[in-house]
Design brief:
The chain is 24% helix and 29% strand. It has helices spanning 36-42, 49-66, 153-164, 222-235, 240-244, 250-258, 279-286, 291-297; strands at residues 16-22, 27-34, 74-81, 85-93, 102-110, 127-134, 142-147, 169-180, 183-196, 263-265, 269-273, 304-307, 314-317. Strands 1, 2, 3, 4, 5, 6, 7, 8, 9, 10 and 11 form an 11-stranded mixed beta sheet that branches. A two-stranded antiparallel ribbon has the order 12-13. A hairpin with a 7-residue loop joins strand 6 (127-134) and strand 7.
Length: 332
């Protein structure tokens, strides 16, 4: 066990997403378990409890959704609102090679004096939920947006898929602080995502919908509706302990819930906390500024500084070495 490894991480199915398919119902899904990855995200900040819960939920959604598509670079989820929690942003970076882990990161922006004792989702006001996909150079980015609806971030994600992608989708999730024998208290999360098999690849549908916000049941009819309703009734029987799963393997969970639907599993995807920030990226972001602009950014100590909102990394640079009039950085 490494110094940064929590005891819970030693469970084989932690920090992973397991894809599955229900052949008897024409429905696919994912089971996700986050332990060390979620702890890595949250320990970068000292969030109030309500904000921690929202970030945990958003990170779990990101792991589940990110694994459903072939992300060559980055998938991002974002909530923007007029509430006390103004923004929640997450990124999912696809594996750089076969056998490598996907990476997730997340952060929230909030007004501490506006937080209340109400539920975490009540800290989010009117706003929107967005999913963005950036496949890298040479590829057009994709973005879909839907209004914040329902009583949870997972309900917002379900509305997004119904409205923007016309894909019936359901999430059942649990998250919170966990502890066990000889184990320090730490964050843990788990969840199941169900999605009706698309007639084309996911995220092919363009546009952002129109009219009222759709739900999954608006999109299925006949035998599809019967299959969708039956599988959702089965998912309703899951409990929090089964979702978080410190002692229940994802395969055991699937057999318990869906054994009559002929579940078939595929290779699991490992997930870890990881940030893409670097000094080179900071320098690149500052490269559009002149020496005069850089001078305005310089601190009283004569330095240009930057902090990563995701991982709290701090960058301290010589102002003479940044901007498009910069000198060589060999002296740094």
């Amino acid at each position: 066990m490494t110094p940064d490894t929590q005891p819970g991480q030693m469970i084989a199915w932690d920090d992973s997403v397991l894809p599955f398919q229900l052949d008897g119902a024409d429905i696919r899904g994912r089971v996700a378990r986050l332990d060390g990855a979620l702890e890595g995200i949250l320990r970068q900040h000292n969030y109030p409890q309500q904000v921690e819960a929202l970030v945990a939920e958003m990170a779990l959604l990101t792991a589940l959704i990110g694994q459903t598509i072939k992300v060559r670079w980055k998938l991002s989820l974002q909530v923007q609102s007029k509430g006390a929690v103004r923004m929640i942003a997450t990124d999912y970076y696809g594996p750089e090679a076969d056998g490598k882990s996907a990476r997730i990161r997340a952060y929230a922006s909030y007004d501490a004096d506006r937080l209340t004792d109400a539920t975490p989702f009540d800290q989010v006001g009117e706003g929107y939920f967005a999913i963005m996909i950036d496949q890298g150079k040479g590829m057009a980015p994709y973005q879909g947006i839907t209004p914040l609806e329902g009583t949870s971030l997972s309900a917002c994600a379900e509305a997004y898929f119904a409205q923007s992608e016309q894909l019936p989708t359901r999430f059942s999730m649990s998250f919170g602080r966990s502890s066990g024998p000889n184990e320090p208290e730490h964050w843990r999360a788990g969840g199941v995502m169900l999605q009706h098999m698309p007639k084309a690849s996911p995220f092919v549908a363009k546009g952002e919908g129109s009219g009222g916000v759709l739900t999954a049941t608006d999109l299925v009819h006949g035998d599809e509706e019967e299959n969708w309703n039956r599988v959702n009734v089965l998912l309703d029987t899951v409990d929090d302990l089964e979702l978080i799963g410190p002692s229940i393997a994802p395969t055991d969970l699937l057999l318990r819930l869906f054994h009559e639907e002929l579940p078939r599993v595929f290779d699991a995807q490992a997930v870890r906390f990881g940030c893409s920030c670097s000094e080179d990226r900071v320098r690149q972001s500052l490269s559009i500024y002149s020496a005069r602009d850089i001078e305005k950014m310089t601190t009283d100590d004569g330095r240009v500084t930057a902090d990563c909102q995701f991982c709290s990394a701090h960058y301290d640079l010589d102002p003479a070495t940044v901007g498009f009039e910069a000198k060589a950085t060999s002296g740094e």
